[in-house]
Amino acid sequence: MAGAGVEGGENGGMRGASGAFKASEHNRGRATIALGLATAVVAALALITATEGPAAIRSVAAPPPPPVPPAEIAISPAAGTAVNPSVPLGVEVSHGTLRAVDVTDTKTGKKLAGEIAAGAASWHSTAPLSYADSYQVAATAVGADGRVFHQNGTVNTIKPGALAFPSFVPVPSHNGVGVGQPVVVKFDHPVTDKAAAERAMTVTSNPPQQGGWYWISASEAHYRPKAYWQPGSTVTVTANMFGVDLGKGVFGQTNRSETLQVHDSWIAKADGATEQMRIFHNGALVNTMPISLGSKQYPSHIGPHVVTEKMPTMTMDSCTYGVCEGQPGYYKEKVDLDVRISNDGEFVHSAPWSTGQQGSSNVSHGCVNLAPANAQWFFDHFGTGDVVEITNSGGPPLPVYDTYGDWELDWAHWQSGSALH
Fold it and tell me: Which one of 132, 143, 186, 198 has the fewest CB atoms closer than 10 angstroms to its CB?
């Protein structure tokens, strides 16, 4: 039994040892294979690294760089249509930088002034173009690829049917103007698109004062403040008309600007009921004069009048307003110290022949009659833009279109005369 036991134990132990040996042998085989594969990978990587370096590994994964596009030059306005000369001529380059731009006026052969912007990606003209003209453009650029590129082109400008010149009234004077002086812009061709013209006109005043435009006719626009200008104001009118389409083939000819200086306030109040004229300087009453206004047959217009001119002497002829020689009421005589206050023939002037009626009755043909001494004082103190307000004359209001009948309209009616109202 002991022998059986030993035999059984030995055989079992041997079998156990044999099974463990086989498992260990199997594991050692798998480990050997894994080690061999790792060694092969390391060897391959080492071989690549040793032969071509890390950059070679990266270059394998990176895509090739895109090609560098050539420079492209664009000229504006584009060729093929006539353009407004107020639009600057421009040149732009993409994928490069501008080296030179030459623009030649084909009419004059002169170069058009311009400048290349910072960064050399664009060029623009710095001088105005002309109407009905042609410009040859030659541009050179260097592309990002280093190649030089040239581009030529032609730009043509429009040919207007007519050019309208904006004239200003009054012209600046070292004496300045009075507080009632409107700013007037007159065109030498009718303006169909008044809104376009008005958008191109500005009036600024110092100190600032509310004001607005009123179109007296198709070729004349007036600007006045809501109330008389403040004494000492500086008024600047600007008409940027060049290139402005005024309608029906008419374009603005040029840009203009002028500045007026408003002096002290001089306002005369002529009352047909009292036959007196009171004169105010900067709001203070400084003189009172007896007057004679227009008769019932020829009554003076009522309302504010504005002085437009004055003359030491002139010949007054009733035929200028339709009453000619041989007709009742005709006159033609020399008159002194004449201060015009309307285009209808109304003046403040010396009238020695009516001193007996001055202060008591109205006997003139519409003028404000004064004794010679009073007329001299008035002539010396009143000038362009100063105001004469006539009341109780029995006459109609001064028409708004009669030179400077601007103040006859209240502010709401004045504003309605704007094309942009």
Answer: 132
Tokens of 327: 């007709």
| Digit-coded pLDDT (tens) for 178-210 | 999 999 999 999 999 999 999 999 999 999 999
Identify the active-site residue in 189, 263, 301, 349: 349
Assigned CATH class of 162-263: mainly beta
User: Using one digit for the tens of pLDDT, what is the confidence trace for 139-171?
Assistant: 999 999 999 999 999 999 999 999 999 999 998
Q: Domain residues of the chain, as ranges?
A: 72-156, 162-263, 266-412
Mean pLDDT of the chain: 88
Give the angle subtended at the CA of 154 by the CAs of 153 and 155, to the nearest 5°: 130
**Domain 266-412, what architecture?**
Beta Barrel (2.40)
pLDDT digits (tens, 9 = 90+) for 251-275: 999 999 999 999 999 999 999 999 9
Are 256 and 228 contacting, i.e. CB atoms less than 8 angstroms apart? Answer: no
Return the half-sphere exposure (C-beta side, CA atoms, 13 A cut-off) of residue 281: 7
Tell me whether residue 324 is one of the annotated catalytic residues: no
Same fold, 72-156 and 266-412: no
Token pair 């007329």 in the structure block, residue: 375
Residue of 356, 311, 308, 318 whose CA lies nearest to 336: 311
C-alpha neighbours within 13 Å on the C-beta side of residue 95: 14
Q: Is 305 among the catalytic positions?
A: no
CATH of 72-156, one of 2.60.40.3780, 3.40.190.10, 1.10.150.130, 2.40.10.330: 2.60.40.3780
CA distance 40 to 48: 12
d(CA 108, CA 11): 125
Q: Which position among 367, 381, 413, 421 bears the catalytic label?
A: 367
pLDDT, position 326: 86
- Nearest Cα to Cα of residue 154 among 67, 80, 91: 80
pLDDT digits (tens, 9 = 90+) for 280-338: 999 999 999 999 999 999 999 999 999 999 999 999 888 877 789 888 878 888 999 99
